[in-house]
Amino acid sequence: MIRLKFSIELRYSVLQSGADFIFSIHAAQNAQQTVVDEALVLSQPLLHNLYTDPETHTRYLRLKADAGPLTVLYSATVDLNHVTAQPEQIAEVGVAALPGHVLPYLYPSRYCQSDRLVRLAIKEFGHLWQGYSRVQAIRDWVQNRITFQPNSSNGNTTAVDTLVEEVGVCRDFAHLMIALCRAVNIPARFATGIDYGASPSLGPTDFHAYVEAYLNNRWYLFDPSGVAIPMGFLRFGTGRDAADAAFATIFGNVQGSAPVIQIEAVPNAQGQLVLPQHVAYALSTDGL
Amino acid sequence: MIRLKFSIELRYSVLQSGADFIFSIHAAQNAQQTVVDEALVLSQPLLHNLYTDPETHTRYLRLKADAGPLTVLYSATVDLNHVTAQPEQIAEVGVAALPGHVLPYLYPSRYCQSDRLVRLAIKEFGHLWQGYSRVQAIRDWVQNRITFQPNSSNGNTTAVDTLVEEVGVCRDFAHLMIALCRAVNIPARFATGIDYGASPSLGPTDFHAYVEAYLNNRWYLFDPSGVAIPMGFLRFGTGRDAADAAFATIFGNVQGSAPVIQIEAVPNAQGQLVLPQHVAYALSTDGL
Amino acid sequence: MIRLKFSIELRYSVLQSGADFIFSIHAAQNAQQTVVDEALVLSQPLLHNLYTDPETHTRYLRLKADAGPLTVLYSATVDLNHVTAQPEQIAEVGVAALPGHVLPYLYPSRYCQSDRLVRLAIKEFGHLWQGYSRVQAIRDWVQNRITFQPNSSNGNTTAVDTLVEEVGVCRDFAHLMIALCRAVNIPARFATGIDYGASPSLGPTDFHAYVEAYLNNRWYLFDPSGVAIPMGFLRFGTGRDAADAAFATIFGNVQGSAPVIQIEAVPNAQGQLVLPQHVAYALSTDGL
Amino acid sequence: MIRLKFSIELRYSVLQSGADFIFSIHAAQNAQQTVVDEALVLSQPLLHNLYTDPETHTRYLRLKADAGPLTVLYSATVDLNHVTAQPEQIAEVGVAALPGHVLPYLYPSRYCQSDRLVRLAIKEFGHLWQGYSRVQAIRDWVQNRITFQPNSSNGNTTAVDTLVEEVGVCRDFAHLMIALCRAVNIPARFATGIDYGASPSLGPTDFHAYVEAYLNNRWYLFDPSGVAIPMGFLRFGTGRDAADAAFATIFGNVQGSAPVIQIEAVPNAQGQLVLPQHVAYALSTDGL
After folding, report:
1. Average pLDDT, whole number, for chain A?
2. CATH number, domain C87-239
3. What stretch of H or E contains A162?
4. Residues B222, B227, B232, B238: is their CA dihedral positive or negative?
């Protein structure tokens, strides 16, 4: 059992009263991810609402802010209790056997135009064993092909752009991997967390985007950008791509600054300090 | 109460056994749309499964077909019991008050890149009263600007393409209208039905794509292509755009031919024949 | 010396008088390509004008047609006197040494967005010897990666689309090859001719698009689609891409049908019948 | 006669020897634009070459630089002797009457996909008198629709993107205006100069991009961004779009900083100081 303690501080200047915010910075809660404690501090005395999506368990913090400075400080301690499995025992699920609620993750989305990549994906991955190792092959293909470069993409950059230009940040790696998975009928979704274990050379601790692929009736974790340690990913939100899973969606005239994030492993309930590490087996934190 | 009777015949050549099909040709069932009777006939003796999405009530028929010809014949009689309202009494719902399950319809999707149209949408529609008439203005803008032309678009055509090239078919009109609604924070979704009332000059009766916008806590119907009669739209599926709501999604080596569709109004339970007609008031068949 | 005899018949319905046509169906004339005889027959008694581009020697037939049927019949006998060279003796020309009039063929164009493919091209081809064999490697890469499929693209399809979707016709192969050449600083241009030697399984004899790359101060021929015999390519037009080098550019309300084209090798001035064939050495028909 | 005196200072760090540069910072020379004096100072003792395009008179400075700092300082005094005309006397030239060398400016190019905007352009401008005032209408349409915002676009931004997103800098305004002109068969090209007369609020004096449209057998000046004074535009380069007419095209590993540019009107040969100003009549500096 890994116990992670983290805090997120977001600072905004609300230039006009009545700006709506939808945050996805609360740790999701499910059988594998337990919130031991959490605290939310808002610098404005605002009514706010926490909506939990019944299917994904993503929690959305919603509020309407007044003009002036707004600071959102969220901190939590979370236990991660991964389901693990041996890669060779994890097969794909045929389309006919997929649960209905998983089907949307087969279809193309704003940033993951899987429909355009079918030929390429079949040529590269169509002949491989239909299981975890095929998804690893897709992850490796993306990781080998794309160069990680800060500020090399923007909010309009799609999987197709990343395939063509071969450069991006973690969200771009995730989008391309998701599009390729869907192109060979593997459900895949976008997940957000913190880049636990990333090299300080990449800058301060930041939000992270990674991939969950649906295999053997669970969602398994993959990190196509390869910059962080998947075992340390606690999930905030999931969605079909970054359009669904921004850490903050803002409606109104607001200026923001870079988030300040801290995360560390701490001793768990048994007093043991278990550090996330790279492992050869498969990890899952969601069986829905 | 309008009673519609329709049939859909789909013919395929399955070139390799094991092709998966996901159909969305069953009439959705909810308080406003009641299935009086329905029948499904498959030309192959196949196990099949009907999955109903708990949120949208869309029903998905799923089956795995053998090689050879496959005919799917679905027929049903459906009662439509529209909720109606006066346009001037239908206001938009502020972002903060939107139900959580409606939020995904605010975000950009595969074919509706609302994020790219924010400036345009605010300039054109930002100053209008925030209610039904604003959505009508968007519908009219799309209808006036885009020319309906069969075969003028393909499966890769997006709302941005349609905006630029100013030509399309019903799905393109729907995508552009949806993108513009979302760009001014009005939740909008893609709906599929039959083009009841379309002029025979457009060809035989066909599937139709239209728009539902979320206003005053209901989904209201709009037909941006203007070719059919909204009161005659019985809904099969809904989704964020055509990527979600195809009438048939096929995985495998399959050839298809054009669907053969018939629809007519028939006497209702009270023995009255109520014909769908163009009306000035607002129509809704879904309050979720 | 190869002698080719060909005819091109183009049929149009001009729906409104005053339609302008710009044709590029006259064989270019230069030191390597000599027109022995040629004839042009127009079914309407029209003034027409033949403009020869001083740099490329492309000849443009320009006319303004009356309403009604218009048939353009052009036939010619042309001698091809290829400059040949051994691939290993053909080096690239450094940017600093390129003649000024060649520079435009280094830059991106409508259908060849070489600027977006720089990373990919350097990774794939940056390490190769800078000469003919590098261009062959680019040609082979394109040929292996893209599937030839009639009607798989349209007038909006670019090199980037072809790279992503991996399917196209001869013009798409040419665009992608051109874009990749330019991305590693090799001037490349689009050329049009007839698909001499193409398999009848691809349909009747047709116009063809291929590539000329500037190496060792000449333009060398390449056929990335691989469907025809380069030695049989007599050139009509060249340009930066298909936007410049259409066989017919039409301004007005006109309907057309498929061109009817015939080409054959005939005995040359010495009475010898030399048939174009696939060869291992390099071919050039232009030294400008 | 306006006399302008200007200087351009460009500073680079060449990280690897052998970097090729192609500059277009020399004032073009023709009947309307006379170079009174000019000077070029390079901080490295390099061989360099000045290539003048025979058709456009654009002068290209080409050099290969050594590793280390490189400063290019060009200064000149130039007389502008505009051809002027009354807008109502300037008609378009029909396609059939266009000189052959003007035809390329009718076709779509990398950043100006005029082929995609034909419907829109005909609907907006197809009914107008075919002359200077139609081009003004296109310029005004672009100027009214697009918002000038520094750093809102990048090297991949096209006319279609600008149409959709409605924001850009001078090159984006120019690309959209050019694409719309070509879409109604008016030849249009991209021209580069200095933003004479631009408000200091837009930042220091900078390079500028504007449009020349071919009307009545001359190229007339238009400034769709509206930020500067067309009478003060002395031309460096022209081309089909920014792909052809960058002030510097660099091949190699080089870092650059912002150019430092100064321009002012000075007394002419008659000792008169004539200041460029906004005028209601048409201006041309090129009759080719």
Report:
1. 96
2. 3.10.620.30
3. helix A159-165
4. negative
Domain topology for D83-240+277-286: C8orf32 fold (3.10.620)
Tell me yes or no: is domain B2-81+247-266 CATH 2.60.40.2250. Answer: yes
Taking only the tens place, the pLDDT of each residue in A134-147 is: 999 999 999 999 99
Question: By three-state DSSP, how is residue C83 classified?
Answer: strand
| Region B85-240+281-286: CATH code | 3.10.620.30
For chain B, what is the mean pLDDT? 96
> Complex ipTM, two decimals?
0.95
How far apart CA B223 and CA B265 sit, in angstroms, is: 19
Q: In this structure, what token pair is assigned to residue C1? A: 């010396």
CB atoms within 10 A of CB C33: 20
Question: Which residues in chain C have Cβ-Cβ distances shorter than 8 Å to A166?
Answer: 119-120, 123
* Chains touching D, CB cut-off 8 Å, 3+ pairs: B, C
Q: State the Cα–Cα distance between residues B130 and B88, nearest whole angstrom.
A: 10
> Which tokens is D30 given?
């023709």
Which H/E stretch holds residue D49? strand D48-52
Ordered by start, the domain boundaries in chain B are 2-81+247-266, 85-240+281-286
Query: D2-81+247-266 with D83-240+277-286: one CATH topology?
Result: no
Q: Which of D22, D108, D239 sits opposite C243 (nearest CB)?
A: D108
Q: How many CB pairs under 8 A join A and B?
A: 71
pLDDT given at position B288: 76
What is the Cα–Cα distance from D39 to D74, expressed in whole angstroms? 6
pLDDT digits (tens, 9 = 90+) for C130-177: 999 999 999 999 999 999 999 999 999 999 999 999 999 999 999 999
| pLDDT exceeds cutoff 90 at B66 | yes
Instruction: Quickly tell me which residue has 């998701």 as its tokens.
Output: A178
State the DSSP H helix or E strand holding residue B215, giving kind and residue range, or none if neither.
strand B207-215
Return all residues near B65 (Cβ < 8 A) that are at least 6 apart: B12, B14, B17, B18, B19, B20, B21, B44, B46, B252, B254
Q: In this predicted model, what pLDDT tens digit does every residue of B124-176 receive, in sequence order?
A: 999 999 999 999 999 999 999 999 999 999 999 999 999 999 999 999 999 99
Query: For residue C109, what are the contacts with CB-CB under 8 A and spacing of at least 6?
Result: C240, C241, C243, C244, D109, D110, D240, D243
* Closest-approach residue (CA) in chain B for D124: B145
All residues at 6 or more sequence positions from B200 whose CB lies less than 8 Å from its CB, including other chains = none
Q: Which of C117, C123, C165 sits opposite A119 (nearest CB)?
A: C165
Cα distance between residue D69 and residue D71, in whole Å:
7
DSSP B155-176: TT--HHHHHHH-EE-HHHHHHH
In this prediction, residue B36 has a pLDDT band, given cuts at 50, 70 and 90, of very high
Q: Are D189 and D142 in contact (CB under 8 A)?
A: no
The arrangement of secondary structure in A84-240, i.e. its CATH architecture, is: Roll (3.10)
CA–CA separation, D249 and A65 (whole Å): 48
